[in-house]
Design a protein that fits this description.
GO terms for molecular function: GTP binding; GTPase activity. The structure is a single chain. This protein is of the alpha/beta class. Helix content is 36%, strand content 25%. It is built from four helices and seven strands, in the order E-H-H-E-H-E-H-E-E-E-E. The protein has helices at 7-11, 13-23, 47-57, 72-98, and strands at residues 2-3, 32-35, 61-63, 102-108, 111-122, 128-134, 142-143. The protein has a four-stranded antiparallel sheet. Strand 2, helix 3 and strand 3 form a beta-alpha-beta unit.
């Protein structure tokens, strides 16, 4: 969130996005919000500037006014919807991988090596754990996605 009446807050967006990328979960839900859109006479950040930053970061963009209750519900509903969709995708991926082991193929000095995920089990606390089997045990050097 940045303040549309404060150019410094807008100029620090790249810092905050970088901070989120470095410290948050890779699948964290993000939106960009310009606050105080009701302060038209004090505005220093144009709506198109915010929209361009949001597009470059591939996140939804909103302007809001907490004071005037503009777009507040829409922002929260969008974030909630994004979280729900993300959880459904994650659940779908987990369900599809439960019954069939996933193989990762590696290349070591020209010899393919397979690492197979045997199980993906849910524990009582809702977390998952993997069990691994290394088919051939050489030192692995380069991941080669082209191998069968």
């Amino acid at each position: 969130m940045y303040d549309v009446t404060n150019m410094d807050s807008f100029n620090h967006l790249s810092y905050w996005f970088r901070n989120v990328e470095e410290n948050a979960s890779p699948d964290v839900v993000k939106v960009l919000v310009g606050n105080k859109c009701d302060s038209t006479n004090l505005r220093v950040v144009d709506q198109d500037q915010g929209r361009k930053v949001a597009e470059s970061c591939d996140v939804p963009f909103f302007e809001c006014s907490c004071k005037e209750d503009v777009n507040i519900d829409e922002i929260f509903l969008t974030v909630a919807r994004m979280i729900r969709e993300q959880r459904e995708r994650r659940k779908s991926i987990l369900n599809s991988s439960k019954n069939s082991p996933t193989h990762y193929f590696f290349k070591d000095a020209g010899t393919p090596t397979s690492l197979k995920i045997l199980e993906l089990n849910s524990s009582k606390n809702g977390r998952t754990s993997n069990s691994y089997e290394q088919v051939r045990p050489p030192t692995l050097k380069v991941l080669d996605p082209q191998l069968p």
